[in-house]
Amino acid sequence: RVPLSEVTHLQDLGCGTFGNVWLGHNATFGKVAVKTVKPGNKAGSAHNFWREAEMLASLNHPNVLRVYGVVVDSPTAGPDSLGTLGSPIDRPVVGIMTEYMRGGSLSTHLAYLAQHRMFIPMAPRAELALHAVKGLAYLHDMNVVHFDLKPENLLLDTPLNLLDPNYPVPVVKVADFGLSKHKLKHHVPDVLNLRGTLPYMAPELATNSLCVSEKVDVWSLGVVLWEMLTLQTPFGDCTPQEILAGLMSARPPEIPSWCEPEWAHLLECCWEPNPQNRCSLRHLSETLQRIIDEY
Ligand code: ADP
Ligand code: MG
Ligand code: MG
After folding, report:
1. What is the rounded distance in angstroms from the CA atom of residue 44 to the CA atom of residue 51?
2. What is the largest CA-CA distance in the chain?
3. Strands 67-72 and 2-3
4. Where does ATP bind (predicted)?
5. To bridge 283 with a disulfide, which of 19, 76, 145, 279 should be the other Cys (CB 3.0-4.6 Å)?
6. Ligand 1 atom at minimal distance to the Cα of residue 18
7. 190 catalytic, yes or no?
8. pLDDT given at position 39
9. Pick from 55, 153, 139, 155: which is nearest to 101 by CA?
10. Residues with CB under 6 A from ligand 1
């Protein structure tokens, strides 16, 4: 638990749905990323941050963003949110402090490459994907369902540099546990309805919540793999209504005809409509490893 006054603001890094993220410096941890409540965001954010930090704190894997602690309000602030956090804590939680990922989010890099009409060759693409798969497999082993997997929530340790063949492929880490659920603590189908981001959501979230399981993340991962291939955003020109209709009929984004057969196989097996038949992360990681070895 670190007081806000002990983190120096250096620069803004980005903002998501719920938080503003900025780069800070702390005497103990050095450079850190701090996610704080967006101004004007409703009460309950403190609770959400606490929950998100708690979720992250129990996790430790090279492909999962590391959390250092929660940031609490300056010492002058009273214990006004005592009790609302579901935990005995003396000051309001205003943010989460995590490791800083210098490469930023995968979505930024995909947009940059699209703008410059570049594509990611299959070998580095498979390497990036394998990081995400390993992080996700770890989460599922820990009984955590992420529920919001998308390129924005995958962070890179260094920038993606495809022009220099000697430049190593960045390490990818799964981030943003704001919507995550612990399978053993919550009966998953009870707690959610259309949880996640529409174009990445598995069909069972819209059609049969009794089938909702960690396999929702595998569907989303398929959409991420599709985006790494095409550099387009899924269902780019569709309205939310059209996307929802597609979701109910388990319609994934279209696989382009030029897609390598190996990659098409990956996409198809992530997009199996029946979650029970949807491929395992083990199958994905073995297939990706084979691609890396062969190309
Ligand atoms: P939200 O829950 O509001 O979506 P995120 O945790 O996804 O917030 O963070 C929003 C954005 O901020 C990310 O998409 C990324 O661009 C940036 N960001 C978040 N955490 C870090 C980090 N540790 N290092 C660098 N950039 C980050
Ligand atoms: Mg996010
Ligand atoms: Mg979030």
Report:
1. 11
2. 61
3. parallel
4. 35
5. 279
6. 3
7. no
8. 64
9. 155
10. 13-19, 21, 33, 35, 65, 98-101, 104-105, 152-153, 155, 175-176, 178
Rounded to whole angstroms, the Cα distance separating 93 from 46 reads 5
- Provide the ipTM: 0.98
What spacing in Å lies between the alpha carbon of 25 and ligand 3's midpoint?
Answer: 22
pLDDT digits (tens, 9 = 90+) for 63-89: 999 999 988 876 544 444 433 433 434
Q: What CA–CA distance (Å, rounded) separates 57 from 132?
A: 19
Measure 21 CA to ligand 1 centroid, in angstroms.
6
CA-CA distance, 227 to 252, in Å (whole number)? 12
pTM of the predicted model as reported, rounded to 2 decimal places:
0.92
Return d(Cα 142, Cα 136) in angstroms, integer. Answer: 10
d(CA 121, CA 119): 6
How do residues 166-191 score in pLDDT, each as one tens digit? 889 999 999 999 889 888 766 655 55
Give dist(CA 7, CA 119) in Å, integer. Answer: 39
Residue 27 CA to residue 3 CA, distance in Å, equals: 12
Three-state secondary-structure class, residue 24: strand
Ligand 1 centroid – CA 73 distance (Å): 20
Task: Out of 176, 179, 197, 200, give the residue to mutate to test ligand 1, the one with the largest number of ligand atoms within 8 Å of its CB.
Answer: 176
Q: Which residues are annotated as a binding site for ATP?
A: 35
